[in-house]
Amino acid sequence: MQSFDSGKAPPISVTPSPSQIICGRLEVTEALTLTTRLDKLDKLDKLDKLIEGHQRFHREVFPGKREQFHLLAEMQAPEWLFITCSDSRVLPDLFLQTGPGDLFITRNAGNVIPLSGEEDGATATIEYAVEVLKVKHAILCGHSDCGALKAALNPSSLKNLPKASRWLAHVEEAFTHRQPLDPADGENAELVSLIKGNVVAQLANLRAQPSVARALAHNKIEVHGWYYDILTGRIEQYDEQERKFLPLLG
Ligand code: ZN
């Protein structure tokens, strides 16, 4: 838990008073109340981090970008559609050094593009990006240590997560596109191979989206499959001709 400064509530003592101790035990109801209060305080502390961040943004960052935000306030014209995982470690605006108005982003567990007929967030976002925003590039980006593909390798880990289990049916195609094992990936070689296989599989699903297929037929869009490595901060791109991943930076 964060330390308390003078502007915040004083810390709650976790040491029980003599009246709270019965036969050497903390009275149960008192203990539960204390635990609940500590939980709430802990959550508040964590939310404080976001509120303080927003305060810093509003005070230090926003004034320098006021004109840019003024231009963006009523319209956007991003050139790139970016489809990636929900993972908290994947920050495209950080590793691509992009800013407001640059990337049109859709994220979900495993950077999946479902092919089933039911509407979902990813395919609706793709349709809008291609048909209305007329993005010039669509980038499908997987990443190292992806929990979705880890779960695909170990389905029993999702036995109490029915929705996640059903969602991961969308990554099954990754197994048929697994990439060659790379000894440099050590004990993660199988996982990396599957994550990259999923990029190839979802890239095919991206091409199959009606809006994307139309734009591709008229040379109005390019699609790309990327793999982002959290450990090195580097990106590999899937080369359609060579059918393998190559460093984006050459
Ligand atoms: Zn992931």
**What integer is the average pLDDT?**
88
What proportion of the residues form beta strands (DSSP E)? 15-25%
Largest sheet: 6 strands, mixed
What CATH calls the topology of the largest domain is Beta-carbonic Anhydrase, Chain A
CATH homolog superfamily of the largest domain: Carbonic anhydrase
List of distinct ligands in this structure: zinc ion
What is the CA-based Rg, rounded? 24 Å
Low-confidence region ranges:
1-26
Q: How are helices and strands ordered from N to C?
A: EEHHEHEHEHHHHEEE
Provide an overview of this structure:
- The protein has helices at 28-61, 66-72, 92-95, 121-131, 147-153, 162-167, 189-208, 210-217; strands at residues 21-22, 25-26, 80-85, 103-108, 137-143, 222-228, 235-239, 244-247.
- It has 250 residues and is α/β, with parallel strands linked by helices.
- It folds into two domains: 19-75; 76-247, Carbonic anhydrase (Beta-carbonic Anhydrase, Chain A).
- A six-stranded mixed beta sheet has the order 4-3-5-6-7-8, covered by helices on one side. The protein has a two-stranded antiparallel sheet with strand order 1-2.
- Strand 7 (235-239) and strand 8 form a beta hairpin.
- It is globular.
- The model is unreliable at 1-26 (pLDDT under 50).
- Bound molecules: zinc ion.
- The site of zinc ion has 7 residues, from helix 5.
